[in-house]
């Protein structure tokens, strides 16, 4: 191939693979197309009939076999359509896509026009059908009560669609199609339009049509990467170009039209749905609009690729594909006069419905927003405005590029012929040699001689003289281009800039993705063997955590890992190259979790290569020329596409290189095949029952595999987070990721319940099934006169808990959801029910119970449905059962505003006969989302229920009384609180007295809660349960110093220092988590092993005397004496002479201690010490108070020399540990700080 002229043999990659003609077969006549779904009650002129492939050239290509059924179905998706001279017969263009089982893609470009019917048999058959339809319509109208009005309407109808074979002309649709391996839409559209123009023109084309078709099939090559190519149509040259290796891949569909059809905001929302692999259905009357939007959206996914079912044009005969329970992107043609409400879809719970013609989009529920959406839309809008397009939705007309001229007039033909003649690089004559041109066109022999001279390289002096003075090759500029080419260049530049904005957004979001790719396999074979058991990506951005669970993202990471052993996948190579270039020029994207929006900084530069390729053509294909054809065949007849001579089109020129490389797949086909290698694409050409059944079996297998992978991911990640609580490694799951995984599981269950539905009822198939089950159970309940037991009561009440049993009931859980006024849709109710069942560890049990009613399942579902495949159903339920091994709070954490009933049971220590008190007790329950407020407990009542807005996970409980009556002392063992919807039960240990003159004199205690593991008959908690959170302090730690020091299990100084370091580290880790995932800080401060408990051990260590004057001494007594000393010393001026650490913080310690003593709360001495530690941690004062207390003379009197407080090195170590808390903003719950203003 030279720099200016290019040829293409059969072995190298050609521009087009096949040329196809579809239309009516005069031999078979009219065959009704029952699969097209048309109404047979309408006029025959408006019905559709079966089309056929009349001819295709060449017959077959080994590495790209011709699929006749699929091509015919997509060339004419509506089948044949008829018109008369009174109807509009304007030609129209559309394109389609075929993805084969091996992943290779073939693009089809179709020009459909109307041709006069010349067969008398077909004209007669159409007239007979019309007469039969008219007779039937008239008889029906006369038998009706409103016969007169019906006849009037019938008359109008027949007049508008009448046909008389003697007086009317009948036309039928015919399609010309080019099949290519790459989406050169504009070039193919122009070539086909010129072919049709040559048929309808008054004068015959310069050469027979076979010459142009042969040329585009065999002599026009694909442009090399980064180069442009010019080839010739019938009347004017056509230019196409191909991006270079470092540029974004080829995308020839006009993105400007996509944005105009939907609007910027709608398109970004649609893009988000596709990015998250939801089910997307495009809806339009125009096939080309379906293709433009589908290709435009998938083009913007770079560097990712759509991995699921992709059918931009779904023929009417394949509507059952909408039942596919997998993510898909399909396009469905809407019928004229029908609206969205009349369209019955098998499933809508996870469906994004795009009504292109009405410029609107229906989004699924639980729809996330694209990061920095407002700034992103603003940047896209600026690009569109720069090219004169309005970014708002609702535009009724596409950009100029979307509308191709309907035909070339005589003036355009003359201009095109003149340009064609002046192109001397292929041996054409200049315009001033019109006499020679006329001679050559009129003499076939001279024409053949001229063509032979060109092909053999023989120079003819006379012809060389004629072409002297022409423009040198490759120097035609933009100014010399036609208006169509200028418009094409403008659209190409717009495409590039819009795609660059999207690519830059991904480059920002995934700037550091390589740092989180886990590559722990020594070779490719071992990695492939363990692929499904490995987690290949560590962290993602907030939005991308939902992306991580998609197949697109997984494939992208897989390609990255495989690139260390194999050649990089093309999209990955381009994306990594862009990241490396950005780092090289220090234009680096922010960190992954940054919210800073970065605009694309090289929009102008991005179009330079494209504009340069259009300005200077790199290659020019061989010009169409005369072929060795039989004389007399294919004679020109205006308005009719001729019968082509098959012998000259079935094979191209001989190529010996192709013989040597026979069987080797061309590189361009390898690239095309790689585009869809992981795509699940249904086979379009075989609609036999066996193939449909096989397809449904694959769907069932895919659903089961997806369920296995999702439950495994949920289980492994959740257990990985729990391992952190046990001290093993770091967590890999966040709260946002957990919510994403659960939302993905909800989508999967909806798709499973939507598969094989008999009749769709509502948008949620799962909720519809549940409603049928509830109606049946309630009917049985009414007949029995008592509540029907819905399964065994798995959770039993225990005497030690003092709580009544919570009955396990599927129907009762449904009623809880139905009473939630916040949820307005069936899809929302189904997802809430799934979350509730998962949180209660009843999802598998409930679904098994639901499916146990086989009669109901058979009534609702077809035989091939997933829910009627017994083996797969059992495996599915088993996978869901594995989720019971971990704890989820997916219902509690999502529905934060609902009202929830809580049950409180107070359990006293009955053996000491202090089960009741004559005082007036009260309780206040607090959680991560709020508190219940103080609630009075009726006297002599140990159990109460109350309704309160969702408190979230319960953390603390305040319990107290007013010390009234004779029996004002109360010894409480614990308090139990249960969420009556989720069944979560919390135990708040106490083991202390409440009353004046007993214990530490407390009338109010703050208790720390622990989640109880539910008991079950299957003992599911045994061996695989979630570790309980930090607990309340044990009874031993909360008793006085006297009791503790009297025991023989006192901790050593080293153990206490280690415990303090651990408590501080746990607090630091708490703040390093994302804010929404931190949980309760109160548990870390006041729970078992928390900061308060460890500091109590510090002050307990080395206490000198157990009793002073036979009175129990608490830590708070030491604090008070130290404060009294500091205040008296300050008044006497002695404090100024003490060590430096005692000067400044003494006033704050005194002020805090006095404020706690003066509070209106009836706290005991241990409660006051706890409050002092919490306030000191909040205000970053603990590290200054500790040396102050250690140097106080009271410490010398009350502690032994071996005590921690008297060891300077130990105190310094403790101070260093406490100073680590200064970097974090500690916020305390209101239950801790209530009544203290500091």
Summarize the structure.
The chain is an alpha+beta fold. It is built from 43 helices and 27 strands.
Task: Give your account of this protein's structure.
Keywords: Guanine-nucleotide releasing factor, Membrane, Repeat. The chain is an alpha+beta fold. Strands 2, 3, 4, 5, 6 and 7 form a 6-stranded antiparallel β-sheet that branches. Strands 11-12-10-13-14 form a 5-stranded mixed β-sheet, with helices on one face. Helix 27 packs across helix 28 (826-839), helix 36 (1091-1100) crosses helix 39 and helix 37 (1115-1132) crosses helix 39 (1165-1178). The relative contact order is 0.07.
Count of β-strands: 27
Stretches where pLDDT is under 50 for at least 5 consecutive residues are 1-12, 145-160, 394-442, 458-479, 539-546, 587-593, 656-665, 668-680, 721-735, 789-800, 1016-1048, 1135-1142
The overall pLDDT average reads 76
Structural class: alpha+beta
Alpha carbon gap, first and last residue: 86 Å
Biggest β-sheet strands, sense, barrel: 6 strands, antiparallel
- Identify the overall geometry: elongated
- Provide the β-strand percentage band: 5-15%
Q: Please tally the helical runs, counting DSSP H or I stretches of 4 or more residues.
A: 43
So what's the oligomer here? single chain
* Spatial extent as radius of gyration: 40 Å
Helical residue percent band = 40-55%
């Amino acid at each position: 191939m030279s720099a200016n002229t290019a040829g293409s043999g059969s072995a190298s990659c050609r521009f087009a693979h096949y040329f196809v003609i579809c239309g009516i077969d005069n031999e078979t006549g009219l065959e009704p197309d029952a699969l097209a779904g048309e109404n047979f009650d309408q006029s025959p002129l408006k019905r559709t009939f079966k089309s056929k492939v009349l001819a295709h050239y060449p017959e077959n290509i080994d590495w790209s076999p011709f699929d006749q059924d699929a091509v015919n179905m997509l060339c004419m998706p509506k089948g044949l359509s008829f018109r008369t001279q009174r109807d509009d017969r304007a030609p129209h263009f559309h394109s389609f896509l075929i993805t084969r089982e091996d992943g290779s893609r073939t693009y089809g470009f179709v020009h459909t026009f109307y041709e006069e019917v010349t067969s008398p048999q077909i004209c007669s058959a159409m007239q007979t059908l019309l007469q039969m339809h008219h007779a039937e319509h008239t008889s029906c109208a006369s038998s009706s009560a409103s016969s007169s009005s019906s006849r009037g309407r019938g008359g109008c109808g027949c007049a508008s669609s009448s046909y008389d074979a003697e007086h009317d002309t009948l036309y039928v649709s015919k399609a010309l199609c080019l099949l290519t391996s790459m989406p050169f839409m504009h070039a193919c559209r122009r070539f086909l339009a010129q072919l049709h123009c040559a048929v309808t023109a008054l004068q015959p084309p310069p050469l027979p049509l076979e010459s142009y078709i042969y040329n585009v099939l065999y002599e026009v090559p694909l442009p090399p990467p980064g180069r442009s190519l010019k080839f010739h149509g019938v009347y004017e040259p056509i230019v196409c170009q191909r991006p270079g290796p470092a540029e974004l891949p080829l995308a020839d569909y006009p993105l400007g039209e996509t944005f105009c059809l939907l609007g910027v905001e709608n398109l970004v929302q649609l893009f988000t749905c596709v990015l998250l692999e939801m089910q997307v259905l495009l809806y339009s009357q125009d096939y080309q609009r379906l293709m433009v939007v589908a290709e435009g959206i998938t083009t913007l996914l770079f560097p990712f690729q759509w991995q699921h079912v992709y059918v931009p044009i779904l023929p009417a005969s394949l509507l059952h594909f909408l039942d596919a329970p997998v993510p898909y992107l399909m396009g469905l043609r809407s019928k004229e006069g029908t609206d969205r409400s009349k369209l019955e879809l098998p499933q809508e719970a996870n469906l994004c419905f795009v009504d292109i013609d009405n410029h609107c989009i229906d989004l699924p529920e639980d729809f996330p927003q694209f990061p920095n959406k407002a700034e992103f839309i603003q940047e896209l809008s600026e690009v569109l405005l720069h090219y004169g397009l309005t970014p708002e939705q609702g535009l009724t007309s596409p950009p100029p590029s979307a509308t191709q001229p309907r035909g070339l007039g005589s003036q355009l033909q003359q201009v095109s012929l003149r340009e064609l003649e002046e192109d001397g690089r292929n041996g054409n004559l200049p315009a001033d040699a019109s006499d020679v041109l006329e001679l050559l066109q009129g003499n076939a022999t001279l024409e053949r001689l001229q063509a032979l001279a060109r092909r053999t390289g023989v120079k003819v002096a006379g012809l060389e003289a004629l072409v002297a003075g022409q423009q040198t090759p490759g120097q035609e500029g933009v100014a010399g281009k036609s208006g169509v080419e200028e418009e094409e260049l403008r659209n190409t530049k717009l495409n590039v800039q819009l795609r660059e904005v999207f690519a830059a957004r991904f480059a920002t979001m995934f700037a550091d993705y390589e740092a989180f790719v886990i590559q722990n396999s020594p070779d490719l074979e071992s990695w492939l063997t363990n692929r499904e058991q490995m987690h290949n990506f560590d962290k993602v951005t907030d939005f991308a955590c939902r992306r991580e669970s998609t197949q697109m993202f997984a494939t992208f990471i897989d390609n990255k890992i495989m690139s260390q052993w194999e050649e990089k996948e093309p999209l990955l190579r381009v994306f990594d190259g862009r990241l490396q270039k950005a780092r090289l020029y220090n234009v680096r994207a922010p960190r992954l979790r940054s919210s800073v929006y970065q605009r694309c900084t090289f929009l102008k530069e991005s179009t330079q290569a494209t504009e340069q390729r259009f300005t200077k053509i790199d290659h020019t294909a061989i010009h169409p020329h005369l072929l060795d054809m039989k004389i007399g065949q294919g004679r020109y007849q205006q308005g009719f596409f001729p019968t082509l001579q098959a012998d000259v089109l079935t094979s191209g020129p001989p190529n010996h290189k192709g013989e040597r490389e026979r069987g080797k797949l061309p590189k361009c086909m390898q690239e095309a095949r790689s585009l869809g290698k992981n795509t699940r694409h249904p086979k379009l050409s075989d609609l036999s029952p066996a193939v449909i059944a096989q397809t449904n079996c694959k769907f069932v297998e895919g659903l089961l595999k997806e369920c296995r992978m999702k439950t495994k991911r949920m289980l492994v990640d959740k257990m990985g987070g729990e391992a952190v609580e046990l001290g093993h490694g770091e967590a890999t799951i966040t709260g946002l990721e957990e919510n994403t995984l659960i939302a993905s599981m909800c989508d999967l269950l909806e798709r499973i319940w939507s598969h094989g539905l008999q009749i769709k009822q509502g948008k949620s198939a799962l909720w519809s099934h549940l409603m049928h089950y509830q109606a049946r159970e309630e009917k049985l309940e009414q007949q029995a006169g008592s509540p029907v037991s819905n399964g065994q009561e798995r959770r039993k009440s225990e005497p030690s808990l003092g709580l009544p049993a919570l009955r396990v009931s599927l129907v009762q859980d449904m009623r809880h959801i139905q009473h939630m006024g916040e949820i307005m849709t069936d899809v929302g109710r189904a997802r809430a029910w799934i979350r509730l069942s998962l949180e209660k560890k009843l999802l598998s049990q409930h679904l098994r119970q639901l499916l146990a009613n086989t009669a109901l399942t058979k009534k609702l579902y077809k035989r091939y449905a997933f829910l009627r495949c017994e083996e797969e159903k059992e495996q599915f339920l088993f996978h869901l059962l594995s989720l019971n091994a971990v704890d989820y709070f997916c219902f509690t954490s999502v529905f934060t505003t609902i009202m929830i009933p809580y049950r409180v049971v107070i359990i006293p220590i009955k053996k000491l006969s202090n089960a009741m008190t004559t005082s007036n007790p009260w309780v206040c329950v607090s959680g991560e989302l709020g508190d219940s407020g103080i609630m009075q407990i009726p006297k002599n009542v140990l159990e109460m229920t109350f309704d309160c807005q969702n408190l979230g996970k319960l953390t603390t409980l305040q319990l107290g009384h007013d010390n009234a009556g004779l029996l004002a002392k109360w010894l409480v063992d614990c308090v139990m609180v249960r969420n009556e919807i989720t069944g979560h039960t919390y135990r708040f240990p106490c083991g202390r007295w409440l009353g004046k003159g007993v214990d530490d004199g407390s009338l109010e205690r703050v208790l720390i809660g622990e989640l109880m593991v539910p008991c079950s008959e299957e003992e599911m908690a045994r061996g695989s349960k979630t570790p309980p959170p930090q607990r309340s302090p044990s009874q031993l730690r909360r008793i006085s110093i006297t009791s503790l020091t009297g025991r023989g299990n006192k901790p050593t100084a080293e153990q206490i220092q280690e415990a303090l370091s651990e408590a501080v580290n746990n607090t630091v880790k708490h703040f390093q988590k994302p804010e929404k995932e931190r949980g309760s800080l109160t548990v870390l401060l006041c729970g078992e092993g928390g900061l308060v408990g460890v500091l109590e051990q510090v002050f307990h260590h080395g206490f000198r005397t157990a009793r002073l004057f036979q009175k129990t001494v608490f830590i708070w007594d030491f604090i008070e004496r130290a404060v009294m000393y500091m205040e008296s010393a300050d008044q006497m001026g002695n404090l100024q002479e003490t060590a430096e650490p005692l000067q400044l913080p003494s006033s704050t310690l005194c002020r805090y201690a006095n404020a706690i003593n003066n509070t209106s709360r009836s706290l005991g001495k241990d409660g006051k010490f706890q409050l002092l530690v919490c306030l000191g941690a909040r205000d970053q004062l603990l590290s200054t108070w500790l040396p102050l207390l250690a140097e106080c003379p009271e410490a010398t009197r009350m502690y032994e020399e071996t005590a921690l407080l008297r060891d300077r090195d130990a105190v310094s170590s403790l101070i260093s540990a406490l100073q680590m808390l200064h970097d974090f903003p500690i916020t305390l719950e209101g239950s801790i700080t209530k009544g203290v203003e500091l």
